[in-house]
Amino acid sequence: MNVNLKKKFCILTLIILIILSAVTLYTVNQVSEINGQVLSVNSYKHSDIQLNSALQCEKTKETVNFKLFGFIPIGKTQIDTNPEKYVILGGNPIGIAIKTGLYITSKVSVVTKDGAVCPVDGLDIHSGDILLSIDGVKLESVTQISGLIQEKEEVEISIMRRGETENYSISPALDILTGKKKLGLLLQDQIEGIGTMTYMDGNKFYALGHAIKDMNGEDIVANGGNIYNANIVGFVRGQKGKAGELNGSFSTLGNSFGNITANNIYGLYGDLNKKSSGEKIILGSKNDVQPGTAYIYTTIDGIVPQKYEIQIIKANNQNSPSEKSMVLRITDKRLLETTGGIVQGMSGSPIIQNGKLIGAVTHVFVSDPTKGYGIYVDWMKP
Prior knowledge:
The chain is mainly beta. The chain has helices spanning 3-29, 143-149, 333-338, and strands spanning 39-46, 59-68, 72-80, 86-89, 93-107, 110-112, 115-117, 130-134, 137-138, 155-161, 164-170, 173-175, 180-182, 185-201, 204-207, 225-229, 231-236, 245-249, 258-264, 267-272, 280-283, 292-298, 306-315, 326-330, 350-353, 356-365, 368-376. A hairpin with an 8-residue loop joins β17 (231-236) and β18.
């Protein structure tokens, strides 16, 4: 082989090596975008230990082998197949209006020509019962009632309590002040209150961390409803033996920003009227929770949430949905000096630890308002 031929051969070999090196570097850098036949993938579990306050998290990894032309090994790398999920952090106050059907709040007297009369007096009807129908006509609103009873001396009403239905015959009383017949029942078709948003994800919202209950302590079956922007205007300080509360205001005459679809023992849920926006945070899990320093986001004045330090005293080992996942203690001096600790209305306040959303505040210890319970974010599902 002459000298010129040798030089040409060396140059060609060098060019091929440069091309192979470039292809290898490009392939490794573009691993997340490759979806071709040059890849051979072997999966396995890789314990990726992070020394973050002694917390160990297991993540799924994949080893990716790169082969040129399908058979020449040119390198390998690992990719994370379990990427972290981001959601929109809550902590802001919300006005809640749940449609309950016709909810009986009390029996009332009707002023008649013969004096005060209560048509349902003596009947087994109580606050918290639901008025379902009159003479077989299903009731959707309070305004229906007058038209169904004005021309009748006696009507049959259906009442539901704890899932059981009872029927009663009653004689509506003529109110001499209005000239209208009445049943003697004070009714409302929705229950209203103040709570705290936990987080939002796309067009979904997750709040409270516990069920909304009626005055008898029974879980309310949500037949729809809405959430509204609320403003905290004050609070009653918590003290030993008596829970405090946030005082807030909102108007159901304004535009709601979400529709309620579910109310269960793990929270309030529904659809937002538009895609959520705001501060993003990693959605954690019960596996991320450990005793020690954490933070809650809550609002005790106005509409903007603030961060307050807490200590997670205990994190219960729960492998299936359950209430009271964590025991908390408020340690932030600002919150202790103002509200005295956890108060009603803070339910749903997100709990943050190591930069992740791990749960929500749900209850306060009446015996000690500096302490309370939280629920793992894992369980907050419709």
